[in-house]
Amino acid sequence: MNPQAPTSHATGVAAAVCRTPAVLSAGVTKSVRAKRAGYRCAECGHEVAKWFGRCPECQAWGTLEEVGVPRAALARVAAGAPSAPARRIDEVDVESARARQTGVPELDRVLGGGLVPGAVVLLAGEPGVGKSTLLLEVAFRWAARDGESGPALYVTGEESAGQVRLRAERMGTVHEAVYLAAESDLSALLGHVDEVKPGLLVVDSVQTMSSGQIDGTPGGVTQVRAVTAALVALAKERGLPVVLVGHVTKDGSVAGPRVLEHLVDVVLHFEGDKHSTLRLVRGMKNRFGPTDEVGCFEMVEAGIVGVPDPSGLFLNQRDTGVPGTAITVTVEGKRPLLGEVQALVSPSPLGNPRRAVSGLDSARAAMVLAVLERRGGLKLHDADVFTATVGGMKIVEPAADLALALAVASAARDFALPPDLVVLGEVGLAGEVRRVAGVRSRLAEAARLGFKRALVPRDSGKIPDGMRVKEVPDLASALMIAANA
């Protein structure tokens, strides 16, 4: 008889007994976790299984809220009756899906020709940028086309009908086929649609609308998602184009859950500086057209007007050159725009000289200044350098690097570039001037506006007729040519 056998048996039983509570505890814990409610971010709508102080998706603090237990996915779904029989693609009628012009050409450019029946457009922008003004103009233009497209219904949840009427009188957009309603309840909004039967619906804004059948506060994730889904269903069912006004967060993104941008067909951003009259409508998503188009508008006392040729807004009109200025051509979407880059260099009394940037990318401006000092021979370490654009234009593409470098060099050495000269090129850290896209279209726009000379990178392709072009391989060559021009 093995004297260790009982001992081994006892040890095994004891070990099994010791393991049993752990196994049971793990099973119970797993079962409890399976039934535990999840959490949803009130900022972006991201769902997680457990609570975090910071949302893993959008990095916002304190935005996770507890939600109900998610339903388990069905293993098998029974077939149902289709709402309409499937048809061959060549038999589908496309006339009902043709875009209809809004009457505002700059907006139609961004939309890809106009509003498609049943499309839902989300227009987002900062407070006071002019979203309501633009959409009131759109409603007036839509309704003023001899009634062929039906009336326009403008529903506002942020202002009273009287306030909207006063703005319409100031803009000259009062029309008998434009209907106003001050509502913040979704059911009341749908009632107005049934009564008016509009050809265009404008909701200002989606964050102010709510439904009593949905839990949550107005503007919350649940309410915004439910209201948007209901309006999308309304648009698709009736073939009604709907334009929604959306708020933006402090970082410039659309407020509300991320699913909001997925529900709608078109997402437009309305941009502009409050100190400038220029406004840009930029397409971020478009199921019916391009997403690289930009519409230009100008805010005036009477409202907002489209600017089909905005290059003149970004140039100072003068006949002689001024030290510290350079003209470049930037591309917004598919549209080339001429812009003026200005620079001022002055001796600094401070131990740490100032570097101020307005309308340009500050990181690229700092890089260009470093390349100028190291590769171009300019001494800027003891000078204040101020750089800016004209007319509130924002230039962030690398094609303006060479123009910025020549503007700073012109200001530092006190020489003026010729007033009929445009400058294109990206500046590398080694001082080389790199090629940029669309040189021909950029120079064609410059030639149309009267510019006759250009500095461009090497191998820039075919040059438009009437332009005297000099190709520069590096920054030192560009500085030499510019100083002797």
TrEMBL record:
Pfam families named in the record: AAA_25, ChlI, Zn_ribbon_LapB
PROSITE patterns, alphabetized: RECA_2
Domain of life the protein comes from: Bacteria
GO biological process: recombinational repair
SMART domains documented for this protein: AAA
Placement of sequence motif RadA KNRFG motif: 285-289
One GO CC term, this protein: cytosol
RecA family profile domain: residues covered: 96-248
Residues annotated to bind ATP: 125-132
Stretch list, region Lon-protease-like: 384-485
Keyword line: ATP-binding, DNA damage, DNA repair, DNA-binding, Hydrolase, Metal-binding, Nucleotide-binding, Stress response, Zinc, Zinc-finger
Molecular functions per Gene Ontology: ATP binding; ATP-dependent DNA damage sensor activity; damaged DNA binding; hydrolase activity; zinc ion binding
Keyword DNA-binding: yes
Signal peptide residue numbers: none
Domain observations: The middle region has homology to RecA with ATPase motifs including the RadA KNRFG motif, while the C-terminus is homologous to Lon protease.
Role of this protein: DNA-dependent ATPase involved in processing of recombination intermediates, plays a role in repairing DNA breaks. Stimulates the branch migration of RecA-mediated strand transfer reactions, allowing the 3' invading strand to extend heteroduplex DNA faster. Binds ssDNA in the presence of ADP but not other nucleotides, has ATPase activity that is stimulated by ssDNA and various branched DNA structures, but inhibited by SSB. Does not have RecA's homology-searching function. Plays a role in repairing double-strand DNA breaks, probably involving stabilizing or processing branched DNA or blocked replication forks.
Protein family according to the UniProt entry: Belongs to the RecA family. RadA subfamily.
Protein name: DNA repair protein RadA
